[in-house]
Amino acid sequence: MEEFPVWALAGLVFGTVLGVVGAFGGLSAFLIVLVLGVVGFFVGLVLEGGVQMPTLHSRRQSPGRT
């Protein structure tokens, strides 16, 4: 049995919401929804374990610092 295409459905819903907001809310509303959607996507990745936060933090530190 195939898995349900959750990411494809999420992308479809997000694209539809962006289209409706862009059509009726203008550019500023479109950009706000886009930015919040991207933030929500990354929060979801972190919660699912797709992104390791300590790994990102260690890359930002330079090797010479203590």
TrEMBL record:
Q: The organism sits in which domain of life? A: Bacteria
- Where is the chain membrane-spanning? 29-51
**Keywords, in A-Z order:** Membrane, Transmembrane, Transmembrane helix
What name goes with this protein? DUF2273 domain-containing protein
Q: What organism is listed for this UniProt entry?
A: Microbispora oryzae
